[in-house]
Amino acid sequence: MTAVVPHGPRADNGVCSSVDGNEIGRQHGSRLPAVSIALGALSVASFWVVGLGFLWGVGAVICGAVATSRSAVAEHEAASLRALLGVVIGVAGITVSAIALFPMLAEL
Fold first, then answer.
1. How many CA atoms lie within 13 A of 42 on its CB side?
2. Where do the domains of the chain lie?
3. What is the mean pLDDT of the chain?
4. What predicted TM-score, i.e. pTM, was given to this entire model?
5. Which of 60, 62, 21, 61 is nearest to 38 (CA)?
6. How far is CA 17 from CA 64, 104, 106, in A?
7. What is the DSSP letter of 8?
8. Does the structure show a pLDDT above 50 at 24?
9. 20 to 30 A Cα–Cα from 93, which one of 35, 76, 84, 104?
10. Which residue, 90, 89, 69, is CA-closest to 79?
11. What angle do CA 70, 71, 74 make, to 5 degrees?
């Protein structure tokens, strides 16, 4: 069975009235803030692997910085805060990886 959904400019006869064009656009925003958080979490979790935590952290900072520069993210406060959180977690991963790397370098 199929449903008929009108596609006109004033198609408001009770069918799918909760979904409009603007709401769909907001749902499919940038995924870079989420990627930045995920890379930052990976960088903190893998700080003990030589160089890997550092690389994940750099990726998190880059994704977060690119995400904050996009207008779709800058206009949406929650996405902007997620991108900033990704940058902060990425910097934390870089810092922890660098601190863990110093004793390993002393052994070489």
1. 16
2. 30-107
3. 80
4. 0.69
5. 60
6. 35, 61, 65
7. S
8. no
9. 76
10. 69
11. 90
Secondary structure (3-state) at 21: helix
- Are 27 and 76 within 8 A, CB to CB? no
Q: Which residues contact 5 (CB under 8 A, 6 or more apart)?
A: 11, 15, 16
Does residue 58 contact residue 97 with C-beta atoms inside 8 Å? no
**Structural tokens at position 86:** 């990704």
* Per-residue tokens: 42: 């990976």
Which pLDDT tens digit goes with each residue over 37-50?
999 999 999 988 87
Show Cβ contacts of residue 94 under 8 Å, excluding neighbours closer than 6 positions. Answer: 43, 53, 54, 57, 58, 61
